[in-house]
Amino acid sequence: MSNDLKVKVLYVSAELLPLLKTGGLADVSAALPPALAAQGADVRLLLPAFPSVQAGVTPSGPALPLPAGRDAHHHHHPAHHPAWVHSLPAGLGPLAHTADGTTPWLQAGHITASGQPVWLLHAPGLYEQGQHPYHDDNGHAWANSAARFAWLGWAAALLGLGLDSAWTPDVVHGHDWHTGLGLAYLHHLGAHAHLPRPATVFTIHNLAYQGVFGPEVRTPLGLPATLFHMHGLEYHGNVSFMKAGLVFSDAITTVSPTYAREITRPEQGCGLDGVLRHRQSVLHGILNGVDDAVWNPATDPLVQPGYSADDLSGKAQAKARLQQRMGLQASPGALLCCVVSRLTSQKGLHLLPEVVDDLVASGGQLAVLGTGDQAIVQALQEAQRRHPASVALHVGYDEALAHQLIGGSDMILVPSQFEPCGLTQLYGLRYGTLPLVRAVGGLADTVTDCTLENIDDGSATGVVFGELSAWGLRTALRRALALHRRPADWLTVQRNAMRQHFDWASAARAYLGIYRNLLARPLHTRPGSLSN
Questions:
Q1: pLDDT tens digits, residue range 411-444?
Q2: How many contiguous H segments (helices) and E segments (strands) does the chain have?
Q3: Paired residues of 201 in beta bridges
Q4: What is the pLDDT of residue 38?
Q5: Which pLDDT tens digit goes with each residue over 322-339?
Q6: Conformation bin of residue 324: beta by default, left when phi > 0, alpha when psi is -120 to 50
Q7: Rounded-to-5 percentages of helix, strand, coil across the chain
Q8: pLDDT tens across 91-136, in order?
Q9: d(CA 195, CA 107)
């Protein structure tokens, strides 16, 4: 570990709020590094230079060219690199895949808005096309997806082994499949070059997205036979970036204790439950937090006048404003339910169109913000046509509207088929917008059902149901409507919800504990050293 006892952490991610967001990974990447830094860690991010990311980064240091595996010994900038970079083993590292034939490079800088230090990975031709980092407008993965994230992994591996002699991390912490190959590169590059390597941690934010590519990527990505086998990154004859992260990391974390248990079983293991059972001793579930600087109903500039558990008058005003903005009937007494989500069956939202008519008939309202499955979107558009005063739909993503929806609604619906952690239910709790959730993953860990006994003992914070069906969701909504008709009990549950505390400081402490535990062990005894 570093002599100054500050743990140096290279935090590797494809997304960062507010620069690039497709889901909760971006929120975590914005909140966890500062929380780690607040507890004394020295954290630097590594991000691909997607256009929106590049626009939010101020360069502040040298550019370091990245050697590709085949031509490392011919590299044309020797002065920038320690000697070992010039003798990389053949077959390790991706070939230069950039459109104009240049080798990718790293630019030191900092996030303009927050000042967080960052390495930005430039690779001409890899990151420029389209708005979405993973797929085109038709939902098809970019043809160069494997190269996009192999280069991210290669950059992480080289930085992990001392590419920047002024800052070598103690820990490389990769997030989701986009970073998995980096841990495989790092593991084998360190072994072949006889170099001490940093400790490695891999966090699963959603196991369903795995970065699986055909065997034809092996050669261009420089993956030797020693990596491509059943106990390595081979997955049914293909290359799995997610599996690489699971196999070659010293520790694996995911974003809730329940999800950590669920993914070791076939129902939620997405084909990797066997690997996760094998590595269960190093698998940890750490709940995500809520960034109080962003999500706080008392200070949120998008929800003013603010409110608190002790004075909820501002919430009534937020509800009235939201009904007006969304074109809903002005009705203080209606149960206003919101959805802020990807509109997919994973989120259980294929069930929503089946229960809308019942909700409206019971005096409820629904406001939806999201994009996704076209069949779900069309069914909700039809519901809006049937009930224009009670159903509103905004297709797309709008961070400001998300705050207004969560601030002004009575309830937020998260009926997920599976949910690693979930963030919107945490935002709902914080804003007194009671979560209605299915009992899976982080939803089960963070919301307590409003049974009579739970209301009585002060633990109830929302509505929890089990069966993934229209009947299950409809029954949960009936219970929510019944609770809403009992204002004193509703207020009790609302105040309980607002007093829950899911903070990033607690999560950061747990991650630091994992880092320090790994760093206290000799390299050859770390779990990832045995994965081969």
A1: 999 999 999 999 999 999 999 999 999 999 999 9
A2: 17, 18
A3: 173, 251
A4: 95
A5: 999 999 999 999 999 999
A6: alpha
A7: 40, 20, 45
A8: 567 875 555 667 789 999 999 989 999 999 998 888 888 778 888 7
A9: 24
Best CA proximity match to 259, nearest among 422, 72, 111: 422
As given in the structure block, the two tokens for residue 481 are: 């409507």
> Phi/psi at 464 (nearest 5 deg)?
-120, 130
CA distance 349 to 328: 21
Q: Which residue has the tokens 């990769």?
A: 174
**38 near 508, Cβ under 8 Å?**
yes
* Torsion region of 271: left, alpha or beta (phi above 0 gives left; psi -120 to 50 gives alpha): left
CA distance 222 to 220: 5
Q: How many CA atoms lie within 13 A of 85 on its CB side?
A: 25
Q: Span 349-373, mean pLDDT?
A: 97
Across 56-83, average pLDDT? 63
3-state secondary structure of 141: strand
Q: Is 60 left (phi over 0), alpha (psi -120 to 50) or beta?
A: alpha
pLDDT recorded at residue 531: 46
Secondary structure, 3-state, 311-380: CCHHHHHHHHHHHHHCCCCCCCCCEEEEEECCECCCCCCCCHHHHHHHHHHCCEEEEEEECECHHHHHHH
Torsion angle, alpha carbons of 65, 66, 70, 73, to 10: 60
Asked whether 204 and 175 are in contact (CB, 8 A), the reply is no
